[in-house]
Write a structure and sequence with these properties.
With about 350 residues, the chain is mostly helical. It folds into 2 domains: about 25-185; about 190-345. It has 9 helices and 2 strands, in the order H-H-H-H-H-E-E-H-H-H-H. It has a two-stranded antiparallel sheet with strand order 1-2. Strand 1 and strand 2 form a beta hairpin. Helix 1 runs antiparallel to helix 2 (about 85-115), helix 5 (about 195-220) packs antiparallel against helix 7 (about 250-265) and helix 5 (about 195-220) packs antiparallel against helix 9 (about 310-335). It is globular and about 55 Å long. About 35% of the residues are buried.
Amino acid sequence: MPWGPSLAPAPPSCQKPPVDADNETSSKPSEAHSRLARGWLFGLIFTLFVILFGAVVRITGSGAGCGQHWPSCHGELAHLPQKIETAIELTHRVTSGLSMVLVFGLTAATFRVVSAGYPARRASLAASGFMIVEALVGAALVLLELVGENDSKARAVVMAIHLVNTMALVAALVVCLWLVRRPQLRSLDWKFAGLSGWAYGGAATLAVVSAAGAVTALGDTLYPVVGTTLDAARPEGDVHFLDLLRGVHPVLAVIGSVILVWGAGRLTDAESQRADREAPIGPRTRAARLIVALVVFQIFLGLVNIGLSAPGWMQITHLAFANFVWIAWIWGWLQVASGVGDWVKE
């Protein structure tokens, strides 16, 4: 499979090494930008922890641990948990709240450090906006009792929406981190040098596959498969829609993997024109290889997950690497949007 169009390389005299924003001495961030970048990195890592802990809440059936109350727990703002389910749900709420405060604080700091007109400001506002939506969707799950043993279609739909918004939040955090580390960038090319179809198509593919995965994970939690049979959790002979959808995610994952691997190859279009094939690989090629490696490993994890009948720890691992694939995809295409790795004519 080709990793870029077959184009004749330009003469060496018309080329100079690719622009790598990470190695540009003239664009090194200030100390304030460096501190802000570390803050956004911590915010991203902490948010990923909150996301994975949310899976723990679902797997343990702790979503109703605080009753039908939000943001209070059993009607109390300072509640002392009496059950493990309450402790898990309350911990998730506290960490989610801390994550929101952290992102809001980083947004304020970005407006102090970054000058007006730079895209980092807009990205930080987007991160705060998606964080607010994340909290509202979480509140809806509790207030509408779409937690615990609820197996309704409404819960499946809301969980899929929840997952897609979470992906948007993570993407915004990654963009913030990228931009504050590169203070010289005044804009991003959201047409991705003519490759927007691949960039947005891959993102949409990941969103669809992940949303289907969220519904499948719900089915695995409520109606687990023991060996080759379903656990007896409902009347015999009653086929639930979650059972019918159980096989959709693996099929979409295989199709999506092909699209992602093919799309990752498009990242190397500019670098494929190098006259000196012995030169070190560029940042886009490194990003493409990382994406392919993560996609292949994620397929392996999915097969293991199916083979083990989706135990809780495996579901969390699978979710973690789904986020890693998503982050790698965003990071790779930010290379294109920023002009990183482009060959420039003198």
